[in-house]
Known about the structure:
Elements: E1 2-8, H1 17-20, E2 23-30, E3 37-46, H2 49-55, E4 65-66, E5 70-78, E6 90-93, H3 103-106, H4 114-122, E7 132-134, E8 137-141, E9 151-155, E10 159-162, H5 168-189, E11 196-200, H6 204-215, E12 220-225, H7 228-236, E13 241-244, H8 250-257, E14 262-267, H9 272-280, E15 282-290, H10 304-309, E16 313-316, H11 324-336, E17 346-350, H12 355-363, E18 369-373
Parallel strand pairs: 4-8, 11-12, 11-14, 12-13, 14-15, 15-16, 17-18
Antiparallel strand pairs: 1-2, 1-4, 2-7, 3-5, 3-9, 3-18, 5-6, 6-10, 7-8
Helix pairs in contact: 5-6, 5-11
Amino acid sequence: MKIRAAVLNTMGASTPYAESKPLEIATLELRSPGAGEILVKMGAAGLCHSDLSVINGDRPRPTPMALGHEAAGIVEEVGAGVDDLKRGDHVVLVFIPSCGHCGPCAEGRPALCEKGAASNTQGTLLSGERRLFRDGKPIHHHMGCSAFAEYSVVSRRSAIKVDPELALEEAALFGCAVLTGVGAVVNTAQVKAGTSVAVVGLGGVGLASILGAVAAGARQVVAVDLADDKLALAKSLGATHAFNSGAADVVDQVREATKGGVDYAIEMAGSVKAFETAYRITRRGGTTVTAGLPPPTATWPMPATHLVAEERTIKGSYIGTCVPQRDLPRYIELYRRGKLPVNKLMTGRLDLDDINRGFDLLREGKAVRQVVTFS
């Protein structure tokens, strides 16, 4: 079938993207799903910093590539061997498919699936195949999803069935922003009720962490970011304190307000400076979690003696240390009960043709979560 999709031909385009147009809205050939795969009619796809970092070259991927990884849609067709989904089912896409057999999967850590990571790096589906073509030449898949498109073929293991009563543009946010942000709080950090939490970096994922900390019962929820409007939004979502990270004494401000630092600091900005801030505002004996993804060359000189003398813990978090089949339905239920107002993270809706302008807004910090919607 012929579809329209946003294709990145080369990384590192000049800005503004509305002028350089790194994403070409191209007509592609999408081939039928193979064994263990499904065809999804896309309903909505969110614009995420992970997409932006591929566009600007911070996260190198093979090109040409059809981008998009945070999405929800409706099953149109199922391939051989798929017997637990049918046409008309609503699904949220998950950007790490899990094989179910490798070491991490066997340990109950599907977010670290070895086969899923390999196929994502290579730009294929979990099967190792590509279903997108232009003029007979293959187009790489992005994170097994390629969701900035009218239709997409994905592995069955990249999709979680959800209640059709949930609006697709809201459901899309659960596939990345919510799984990653809330998961970093409840799964990776394992925040306990009555403790203190700081979130450094208030994009869509960071603000989802704010929601997660509030839902977990943290007594203090500290928001840290460069943008005052995002700090105000964090306060409206339940943050008890807000500090502009541009202040020279921001670390001192947070430590004073929290009487020595927070129990858990979560870095979501994807920069070394933000991670250092998160580390410095963590109390003695506390835990610093990083889920931001800086460029692969970024390093941080760790003050090693702190780990011993202050019994510090540093943890990485990928997709919120999630088990998607378990966590995604739980988070959706919390949303329905008003405990995770994810809809408040949405700041704009776009047509596919406006996607380059949308990434300008994201790059400039003028948007939290925008979604491309499909009729």
